[in-house]
Write a structure and sequence with these properties.
Layout (H helix, E strand, L loop, with lengths): L8 H29 L3 H8 L10 E2 H10 L5 H13 L4 E4 L15 E4 L2 H11 L3 H4 L2 E2 L24 E6 L17 E6 L3 E3 L12 E6 L5 E4 L12 E5 L1 E2 L8 E2 L5 E5 L10 E2 L5 E5 L19 E5 L19 E5 L19 E3 L21 E3 L21 E3 L2 H4 L1
Parallel strand pairs: 4-5, 5-6, 6-8, 7-9, 8-10, 9-11, 10-13, 12-14, 13-15, 15-16, 16-17, 17-18, 18-19, 19-20
Antiparallel strand pairs: 1-3, 2-3
Helix pairs in contact: 1-5
Length: 412
């Protein structure tokens, strides 16, 4: 047979199968690349950001939108339009929880998720690597690794001007990290699976950081360490934390001077860590907090907040009267709180409120008369409020009301 390679039957079958698989995969990538060519420059940059996220994992679509808004400097409605366009081209998949239909709205539905196929991420990785290491806008891991790649140590001696940095590892203690010089980085994404995790020490020197995401996609919550460092990041605009447990913190006031958005999903213990002063927060969200029984009064002292949401927290039974102090509030979402018995009468003080969502609050039996004072309320969602037997006559005073979503019983 000379120098020709010989394969047994099993080897030959496996070789042909792998070759065919690679051939079709490469062909699919070429076809997808043609689809990318039809995108404008802004949409192409947004598509390349998909490589920052792990493949085949459902991630809240707001995470992607936040990067486009706070780092890419897009307007919210433009970011939504690009998200819809990428989904229509099958470059990402949009899904929602069973309770809600897939919809793209003005930031009102935090239960919208996106995921991407491995081939699509491979294309984003391929296209994003064309700039070379020195001029690359994104620095990321191709896949999950146990620790930081050793070659990254060079980034300590040579400042990396990368705009977005994404790290995907297993457990990380403080001594597992090494210093990385990231003076220009605006977004840091940390993905991991573990029950304990320490934020990287180099985070404190990221003076230009605007977006921070820490996501644990393991089956159990992880105790997060080093969280206090974020109070020193004066440019930080948005923080997203998922499936984490906050450690006990010392009673000291720390100011997050420019933070505009805070999202806590599947997190525990953060009500005890509410010693942070957040004066410029515009968007606040807590979702699936299994140990949240009482909403801290400090959560209601947000003078600039426009969107305030607590959802899927089954132990919450009442809301503080101080809820009415949020004079700038435009959207209030109190969804899937089955233990909630009533709304505080101070809700009538929210004179700028335009959207109220109490869907799936099965314990609410009646609404306060003060709800009639919400003269700007245009949307009211009260689906699946099965014990809500009557509405106060004051609802007739809601002159701006345009959309009501409710069950047939309430509709009549």
């Amino acid at each position: 047979m000379g120098n020709h390679m010989r394969f047994g039957r099993g080897q030959r079958t496996r070789f042909l199968r792998e070759s065919a698989s690679d051939y079709h995969r490469n062909g699919l990538i070429r076809l997808l690349e043609i689809s990318i060519d039809y995108l404008d420059d802004v949409a192409k940059e947004c598509f390349l950001d998909l490589a920052l996220f792990p493949e085949d994992i459902k991630i809240c679509a707001d995470s992607l939108l936040d990067i486009w808004v706070y780092v890419r400097k897009l307007k919210w409605h433009d970011a939504l339009s690009i998200l819809s366009d990428l989904a229509s081209r099958n470059l990402l998949n949009l899904t929602s929880t069973p309770r809600r239909k897939v919809s793209i709205s003005n930031g009102k539905d935090s239960e919208l998720y996106f995921s991407q196929h491995s081939v699509v991420r491979e294309l984003a990785l391929h296209l994003g690597s064309r700039d070379g290491v020195v001029h690359r806008k994104r620095f990321l891991m191709d896949g999950k690794e146990h620790s930081l790649p050793g070659k990254w140590e060079l980034l300590n001696y040579n400042a990396c001007n990368v705009q977005v940095f994404s790290i995907h590892t297993g457990p990380m203690e403080a001594n597992h990290w090494f210093e990385i010089n990231l003076p220009e980085t605006e977004a840091l994404l940390l993905f991991f699976t573990s029950t304990e995790y320490s934020l990287p020490p180099f985070l404190k020197s990221m003076n230009n950081l605007k977006f921070l995401m820490v996501l644990n996609y393991g089956t159990k919550r992880a105790t997060i360490k080093g969280l206090d460092v974020i109070s020193s990041l004066t440019q930080l605009k948005c923080v997203r934390l998922e499936r984490l447990t906050a450690p006990l913190v010392q009673k000291q006031r720390k100011e997050l001077s420019n933070l505009e958005k805070l999202s806590l999903s599947l997190c525990e213990g953060f009500q005890y860590a509410s010693t942070f002063t957040i004066t410029k927060l515009r968007d606040f969200n807590i979702d699936h907090s299994s140990n949240l029984e009482e909403v801290p009064i400090s959560f209601c002292y947000m003078p600039s907040v426009k969107m305030w949401s607590i959802s899927n927290c089954h132990l919450v039974q009442k809301l503080p009267y101080e809820l009415g102090n949020m004079n700038s509030l435009r959207m209030l979402r109190l969804s899937a709180l089955p233990g909630l018995k009533e709304l505080p009468p101070s809700i009538g003080k929210l004179r700028l409120l335009e959207c109220l969502d109490i869907s799936f609050c099965e314990g609410i039996r009646e609404l306060p008369e003060e709800i009639g004072q919400l003269k700007r309320l245009s949307e009211f969602d009260m689906r699946e409020c099965s014990r809500l037997n009557r509405l106060p006559r004051a609802v007739c005073e809601l002159s701006a009301l345009k959309l009501v979503i409710c069950d047939e019983k309430i509709g009549k």
